[in-house]
Predict the structure.
Amino acid sequence: MKGFADVDIILCDRPLDYFENAVPVAVELLPGSENLLVFEHPENAIYLFGPEDGSVPSHVRGLCH
């Protein structure tokens, strides 16, 4: 955790608002998901990972590629 000493933690309801011109991409193991090995990754991608015991909420996935 020493490498994270200078990272700001910001709690907010709309974290994607902090990233202008970014393309959110949800990384999930769901039926019909696209394989990341063949996925065409956007240049300004922000990757959202779901929790180990669940998934990214559907309202968040709706904002993603």
Q: What stands out?
A: The two ends are 31 Å apart (CA to CA). Helices lie at 58-61. The mean pLDDT is 85.
